[in-house]
Structures are given as C-alpha cells and as structure tokens.
Amino acid sequence: MKVLVVNAGSSSLKFQLMDPETAEVMAKGLCERIGIDGSMTFEAHGEKIKEEIAMPTHVEAMTAVLETLTGPKGVIQSMDEIDAVGHRVVHGGEIYTESVLIDDEVKEAIKKCSPLSPLHNPANLMGIEACEKAMPGKPMVAVFDTAFHQTMPAKAFMYALPYDCYEKYSVRRYGFHGTSHRYVSQIAAETVGKPIEDLKIVTCHLGNGSSITAVDGGKSVDTSMGLTPLAGVPMGTRCGDIDPAILRYLHQQNPDLDFDDLDRIMNKESGVYGISGVSSDFRDLDKAIEEGNERARLAVDMFCYQVKKYIGAYAAAMGGVDVIVFTAGVGENGSNIREQVLEGLEFLGLNLDEEKNKERGKVNIISTPDSKVKVVVVPTDEELVIAQDTRALAKDLI
Ligand code: AMP
Asked: How many folded domains does the chain comprise?
C-alpha cells in the first residue's frame, strides 16, 4: 500500500510517499514559498533535487508534487498508485479523539477549530482541498495533533478561570505533538518489553517546540502545552509558562506594546533565543557555551530545569514513573541536555548510563540495567503514524 502523507503549512507543504506496513519511504519533499514564488525539494532514489516552480496556491503545489512523483525522477507511474492520503491537522478541538476519514463534516469541524489554531488549521484545510482537487475521490484521513490528549481528565485540562470561559469559548488545555507522544510511548513500552497498559511513562518531545506528557497505561493524562503550543517549558523562541499578569504589566510599562506585539514577543522572541540573544538552535547554544557565553549557559540551564520539573510533577501526578522517553531534535541528539535534565533524579531510582547516553540515531535504552526507571531515546516518526492511521481507516475503501 502507498500512502501520501501531507503536512500543509500556510506557505509550505511537506510530503512523504510511504508504505505504512514496511515504513519504507519512497519519496519525500517540501514545497516552500507557496503564494510568493514557489520551490520544491524532492528526494527519491537517494537523490535530492530542488526546482523553482510557480505555486500561487496549495493546488499548484500539490499538482507539482504529483507531477514530480510520476515524472522521470519519480517513484510511481501514475497517481492511481497512491492508495490514500493522510493529513496532519493541528487542532481537532474536543471533537476528535482519534484519526478520522475526511468528509464534508470533518472539513467543517476543522474549520470550526480554526480560531483555536489560526496559523495551522486553515493551512491544513488548504492542503486537504488541494488534494481533493488534484486527486478527486481518493480516500483521505485527518490525524490530529490534539487527539491523543483528549483522554486527559478535567482536573488536568481545565484552567481555573470562570467556568464560562470553557463553556462559551472552549478555553482549556488541549495539548499538542500528540502523534509523537503516542508513537514514542508505544515504542518505548515495546523496547522495555512491558505492556503499555502497565507503565507510567513521561515522554519528553524536545525540539524547536517542546512538550512533556504524562502517559499512564497508554493514555495521555496530562501535558505541558495548553490552549495553544505556547505553554509549558521554554522553547526555541517561545516563552513557555509565565505569570499571565506579566502581559498587563509590560503594557503598563510600555503602552506602545499592544496584544500583537506581546504575542510576537512571547512566540518569536522568547525562549532560549530570547534569553541567550544567540540562537534558538541548541547546537549554536552549545558552541556559545563552549566560548564562555553566560547567557547561552543560562538559557540551557533554564530549559533543563523546567523539563526536570515537569518530569517530577508528572511522576507525582501518576504516582510514579517507570519510563522516561526523549525524542525530537534536541531529545534525540542532545546527550548533554538529557544528562542535565536527569541529573539529580537519582532519588526516583534512576541511573543514567553515560556511555549509552552518547550513542545516537536509534531506539536505545540509556539507563543502566539496574536502574528502576528506564530512560529510552526514541527517534520520533509522526509521518509513519499518519500513514498507519490512514491505512487502518482507508484500507476497506481501496
Ligand atoms: P525539531 O523541532 O524536532 O526538528 O528539533 C530542532 C532542534 O533540534 C533544534 O533546536 C536543533 O538545535 C536541535 N538539534 C538537532 N540536532 C542536534 C544535535 N546534534 N545536538 C543538539 N541539538 C540538536
């Protein structure tokens, strides 16, 4: 079976053609600058090409993807070989607790959730509509970032605001990176050789955006991101949790700062970038620390401290922790970050194997064999989950 996985952003479209059963990736690529001029990077047969192609809308981008997939450098003869399409959709609100086949009702629901994710949902919908135009009748599935977290109990997802805010405006914690947390918790359970139903797992998705999730018995019971992906630990450029009164205070101190400015500051100018003044990229921070940059040191210290606090909080929330999982760019590669996050957690019965912690690029238990809490690095693969969900829902329609 061949599934096309699509992740559409406002001016970009990431795609991957893959076999959900073998996890083989036949081709992948990225359309960028949609609506501006347009370019496509395309990787297949171990070769990478980049082309400038006019892409006024996502429809032209999708057409270019299909033409390249079926062209001389492509991997299929015709688009009939694509069995189904899986779409990453950021916000499914409280409506979707799992992936669904896309129909008009689902598209309407995605639109309805747009105010909760104004940067992503409209773009995701554009990707869906572009595929419908280019491949009419092809079964399509929506896989939501929020769905995995819909098992959180009310005491974890409610904010202590007037109840009206929830009832009238749907203000609550939704959580994000759900596809990744679901995948890495499953792989970690398999890796330690225990049924996920018997495990208390803390998954740390640490990338440019970061979130921590408490997974009890295979279900998300709490997560660090909130109504939006701004909450939780400090991130590349996002501030994470702050005292909400800071916004009014900043406005009082400098009335020129309106809501848009404050939003930009919190989303784009904060996090490890805002503290260090160097970069949002942890590799640059490592280099700056080596050169003696104190603020880069502080940014990384703050990040690790907050991740550690979430691990402790979630161990308390679940009444223990059996497995801690690290994933995404920083979680998979930053051995120094993992070490710093876990330092001092020996009281939980955790012992890090320093040599194993230095290894990279594979599923790996990096705690010592006698460690009560297992620490596992799992490279995340959201595309594979999207392809697998798409197969499960679309296989009877093909
Ligand atoms: P992601 O959002 O999952 O793509 O992760 C991006 C983040 O991963 C960036 O901040 C990178 O600095 C970080 N990253 C990637 N490779 C490494 C590495 N070798 N060491 C430390 N951080 C890394």
From this structure: 2
Does 118 map to a domain?
yes
CA distance 103 to 302: 45
For residue 240, the enclosing domain spans 194-382
- Of 145, 216, 381, 389, the active-site residue reads 145
Q: Which residues pair with 327 in a beta bridge?
A: 205
Helix (H, G, I), strand (E, B) or coil at 206: strand
Q: How far apart are CA 294 and CA 286, in angstroms?
A: 11
Please tell me the predicted confidence (pLDDT) of residue 398. Answer: 86
pLDDT averaged over every residue in the chain: 97
Rounded Cα distance between 236 and 177, Å, is: 15
Assess whether 41 and 109 both reside in one domain: yes
Q: Residue 218 in 3-state DSSP?
A: coil
Q: Are residues 200 and 326 in the same domain?
A: yes
Q: Whose CA is nearest to atom 22 of ligand 1?
A: 330
| Cβ–Cβ < 8 Å for 90, 121 | yes
Global pTM reads: 0.96
Report yes or no on 62 lying in a domain: yes
Which tokens sit at 374? 């297992």
Ligand 1 midpoint to CA 335 (Å): 11
Give the whole-angstrom CA distance, residue 309 versus residue 235: 15
Residues 352/342, Cβ–Cβ less than 8 Å: yes
Q: What tens digit of pLDDT does each residue of 320-366 get?
A: 999 999 999 999 999 999 999 999 999 999 999 999 999 999 999 99
Same domain, yes or no: 233 and 138 = no
Q: Are residues 109 and 242 in the same domain?
A: no
Structure tokens at 394: 């679309």
Q: Could you tell which of 30, 278, 333 is best to mutate to test the pocket of ligand 1, judged by most ligand atoms within 8 Å of the CB? A: 333
**Residue 139 CA to ligand 1 centre (angstroms):** 34
Chain centroid, CA 130 distance in Å: 23
CATH of the domain at 297: 3.30.420.40
Q: Based on the domain organization, do 111 and 215 belong to the same domain?
A: no
- For residue 388, is it within any domain? no
Question: Does residue 260 lie within any of the structural domains?
Answer: yes
